[in-house]
Amino acid sequence: MTEPTIQELKASLAVANDELGRAVRALTPKHVGGEMEAYEAAYERLLDAERRLAAAEGRPYAVLCDCPVSWDVGAPLPTLLQSDQTSALFFLLPDDDERVGHVRFERLLSSLFGAPNDETFEGHPLHGSGFQPYRAMRVVDSPWIAQLERMNSVHRYHDPSAYAAAKHFIFPFHDTTFECVAQSFTASTVDRRLADAVKYAVDQLY
């Protein structure tokens, strides 16, 4: 079976965009059933088409991470606690005032915490290349990792294997986005309110 050409992938992406547009328009009138399911299926086909085209063109693209904890979409209040090689991200869960989400990143190389917010997600470099709001993602063929390795290559003890194992993660929240390059992460919930969870984590650092 031959691989699809770039033109064929672009055509598939155009078809997926048209399907999503029809699904969005179907949400406007009075529903008769199945409209949301059709929209979600069309959106997934669009993301798949975006990723396939990006891969064929040698561009970076985003895929979903296996993250078992979801955050509140409206006001998750993400809070970052970071040391030299570890980053801990805390956030509010949907409809749960007694627990918070906790994601811990190991073997941290670099991080960003700020823009874009949900009103400017379309300005993210990976928008149109698999980027999904409010979902944990990993970047395939990340230029950030390549940049970090180039910077470190001047070190006399530079170890390329450390960068081969590194991954670029994206966590887009309502008002801010967290991105980092790290080797791995673990996600769990903490049976504490947000402020108490962060204070407890600070005490465990030292």
Describe this structure in words.
The protein is α+β, with helices and mostly antiparallel strands and 206 residues long. It has two domains: 6-59; 64-205, no CATH class. Helix content is 34%, strand content 27%. The protein has five helices and nine strands; from the N terminus they run ααββββββααβββα. The strands form two sheets. It has a five-stranded antiparallel beta sheet. Strands 2-3-4-9 form a four-stranded antiparallel beta sheet, with helices on one face. A hairpin with a 2-residue loop joins β3 (86-93) and β4. The longest helix is centred in the N-terminal third of the chain and has 22 residues, at 35-56.
Summed over residues and divided by their number, the pLDDT gives a mean of 92
Strand runs, count = 9
Shape: flat
* Gyration radius, rounded: 19 Å
Uncertain residue segments: none
Distance between the termini: 57 Å
Proportion of beta-strand residues: 25-35%
Would you spell out the secondary-structure blueprint of this structure?
Blueprint lengths: L5 H21 L8 H22 L4 E4 L14 E4 L3 E8 L2 E11 L3 E5 L22 E4 L2 H10 L7 H5 L2 E6 L4 E6 L1 E7 L3 H12 L1
Antiparallel strand pairs: 1-6, 2-3, 3-4, 4-9, 5-8, 6-7, 7-8
Helix pairs in contact: 1-2
Please give a quick description of this structure:
With 206 residues, this protein is α+β, with helices and mostly antiparallel strands. The protein has five helices and nine strands. It has two domains: 6-59; 64-205, no CATH class.
